[in-house]
Amino acid sequence: MGLRSLGVALASTVALIALPVVAPPSALAADANLSQGRTAASSSTENAGTPAAAAVDGDTGTRWSSAAADDQWLQVDLGTTASISQVVLDWEAAYAADYKIQVSPDGGSWTDLRTVTAGDGGTDTLTVSGQGRYVRMQGIHRATPWGYSLWEFQVFGTPGTTQPGNCSTANSAQGKTASASSTENAGTPASAAVDGNDSTRWSSQAADPQWLRVDLGSSQDICKIDLNWEAAYGKDFQLQASADGQNWNTLKTVTGATGGRASYEVSGTGRYVRILGTARGTAYGYSLWEVAVHTTSGGTSGPVQGGGDLGPNVIVVDPSTPNLQQKFDQVFSQQESAQFGSERYQFLLKPGTYNGINAQLGFYTSISGLGMNPDDTQINGDITVDAGWFNGNATQNFWRSAENLAITPSNGTDRWAVAQAAPFRRIHVKGGLNLAPNGYGWASGGYIADSKIDGTVGPYSQQQWYTRDSSVGGWTNGVWNMTFTGVQGAPATNFDTGPYTTLDTTPVSREKPFLYLDGNDYKVFVPAKRTNARGVSWPANAGTSLPLSQFYVVKPGTTAATINTALAQGLNLLFTPGVYHLDQTINVTRSDTVVLGLGLATLVPDGGIDAMHVADVDGVRLAGFLIDAGATRSDTLLQIGPTGAGADHSANPTTMQDVFIRIGGAGPGLATNSVVVNSDDVVIDHTWIWRADHGQGVGWETNRADYGLVVNGDDVLTTGLFVEHFNKYDVLWNGDRGRTIFFQNEKADDAPNAAAITHDGIVGYAAYKVADTVDVHEAWGLGSYCNFTSDPSIVQHHGFQVPVRTGIKLHSIQVISLGGKGQYAHVVNDTGAPTSGTDTIPSKITQFP
Residue 142 to residues 37, 72, 93, 251: CA-CA distances in angstroms? Predict the structure, then answer.
């Protein structure tokens, strides 16, 4: 018996002698126990005998216990919104030293009701005030080496109520104009208290009185104000409202406050809200990380409204649309060679049959059917991508897409001659599919998912391709790397003498969300997760439909502050085609949030900020957009989960699909990290993370970006991973039990010399590096190419670097010297034959070790 088991046994023996009794104090006898018997969930459980439900079963001889980590939680669903007055926690021997009690209307966005520090175990009876349906104990620090363990978690209050006046969870102050009586310095302006960022703050001069004021933009019924104080807090202050910013009504007077986070229920009307400090709690001024103002707008309505039209760059058509071919031709003539242009377009085809159409797709052009199934939108004609603009070379046919329709090709075979970042999803081709350009020039794709190709797929000159969860009538050939998972009709694995790697199923997949019409109403369908999938997901279509009213439709000119306000209100995001410059990081904090782009909508972080952060929550869907690095270096363009994230998301992972990253090309761009995944269980399904090797703003230091993809989370899966040209590691994998299916890479061709990329006595950073601390990792279908045009004498030591242990397995790995512009000495570590000469012949390993 281990020490933990012995401790549990002793605690259980004590419990049998004198079971703890938990009851509300008599002063609250009228309030009901709202949590008993309700549905409970937790971040983890120690074992099957300590489930979350045991903490709300009314039995003080059963308990919930978590894994032995600090960031753990237990939550209960009260079944309806309630007014909460008290929370009682009956700790087992493994108790929390520091924790928070939080409340939420939806189980995704949380408000702190109480923070407990230096807890001593036993029974904690906490008086609180708040409204919500979900209540959570969020552990911060454990008091013992074990996890957190509760005999009972009881929530008392008044059942079946709603927030006063339907008090909205939205923050009506976020992004609005703020002013103050004074500021400590230029780095602590009034606006920092309403920017939605808990790491920026307003602070005043060290004097009494001082005030902070926010203009809500219109008169509102105010029901609650949340304050998040920095260390310099207000001890005595008033919460006030005004119609004109001159004459003030006091909504609440607070005395003896102790700082931290606090929420105050108020009742009043006004356009302006002011916090008037009358006595400081410290020798410094007043300092607020954030102020939130809630109004009685209710639900997800608020300062930002969901739904509406799709903006100027979405072209919606039906079979009767006049001059339809002309519309396609007009956009194509503009976009055919606009590789780094700023225009973006999305064609949406209503269900029906379209005859005699040839939709040629240029850069930043997407075409999608609006049916629930691909066969609802029939094209008797073609959707064409060719390479006439580049003299028959298709290696730069990037950034375009086709989705959710059926094609009966005019000559029996459709042409889709694309390179990276050009997904072909949810398409029914009633004929064959040619993946090569006219004339069979070079091509470097590509990706197909959830599609049926009745005829034969002909890659011809395509160097590599990944196909997932589809069916094909045949597959003619391959050049270097053709990888298939869950594809009916795929060729059998033959990597010894051929290019094929085939897995019968895909371990975990979830199709990309898509826009469709339900009658006359736009909705977004969010497909469900599949395990061990084979073949297409339709027409069964397991998943959930969301009305457009639950999305903030983002249009060109929208500010980042407005986007964050929409997210804070509980809205999803639908980015319409355009280029969006961001002056603050987009923060996705609610579980199951959908962020969906149309027409390769492009986010550009300005001033050195990160473009997007995703919290460590369940089920976020990121899909269909491009992040383009700004001229000032960002630390991380896209971060999924904060540093140290560790919650279990295996039942409902976050997915990143057709999200592309670019550093340079359209102009100078800088970032240290492109994508960092800290959360566990994330699924990355088709991405191209690209440090530009051509275009504008390109050079070894001009568009420097050290890392492409950094994975710190455990149990992360990538399917269709394209990462190229980074100054250091293209992929650095620190998390355990990671898996990659298909990887395409080209090393940075502008490395000035071998010395510039030598580290730890090794020439060249591996394209795919698995950290020495990793015990289990597996990957299939991996290729790295070198094209060292700045110094062709460079000999890269290896393409792949992994620990040598039984849990590390690589399948179908190769390195290739493109025309003899540099060479590889080995494939993996010190294993595998070197490349040589100018004939572009792969050096391959079928299995490692």
Answer: 26, 9, 11, 39
For the chain, what's the residue count? Answer: 849
pLDDT of residue 24: 38
Catalytic residues: 746
Q: Which two tokens stand for residue 759?
A: 């580290």
Contact 394, 336 (CB under 8 A): no
Residue 160: predicted pLDDT:
56
Q: Which residues pair with 407 in a beta bridge?
A: 379, 429
Structure tokens at 242: 């005004």
How confident is the model over 378-421, as pLDDT tens digits? Answer: 999 999 999 999 999 999 999 999 999 999 999 999 999 999 99
Question: Dihedrals φ, ψ of 329, to 5°?
Answer: -65, -35
Which pair of structure tokens corresponds to residue 756? 């510039």
Which string of DSSP letters, residue by residue, matches 270-323? EEEEEEEEEEESSSS--EEEEEEEEETT-TT-SSS--B----TTEEEE-TT-TT
- Cis peptide bond upstream of 849, omega within 30: yes
Residue 15 pLDDT: 33
In 3-state terms, the chain is what percent helix, strand and coil (to 5)? 5, 50, 45
Phi then psi for residue 728, to 5 deg, are -120, -125
CB atoms within 10 A of CB 787: 21
Residue type, 141: H
Q: What's the confidence (pLDDT) of residue 403?
A: 98
Instruction: Determine the Cα–Cα distance for residues 200 and 437; give it in Å rounded to an integer.
Output: 52
Residue 792 backbone class (left: φ over 0; alpha: ψ -120 to 50; beta: rest)? alpha
Q: How many CB atoms lie within 10 A of CB 581?
A: 16
Phi (first) and psi of residue 331, to 5 degrees: -65, -40
The single-letter DSSP state of residue 754 is G
Low-confidence ranges of the chain (pLDDT < 50): 1-29, 161-165, 298-302
Neighbours of 177 (CB within 10 A): 14
- pTM of structure: 0.69
pLDDT per position as a tens digit, 580-610? 999 999 999 999 999 999 999 999 999 999 9
- Whether the CB-CB separation of 654 and 684 falls below 8 Å is answered with no
Amino acid 106: pLDDT: 65
Q: How many CB atoms lie within 10 A of CB 761?
A: 6
- Which tokens is 585 given? 């990081």
Q: Any bridge partners for residue 759, and if so which?
A: 762
Q: State yes or no: cis peptide before 547, omega within 30 of 0.
A: no
Element (H, E) at 330: helix 324-335
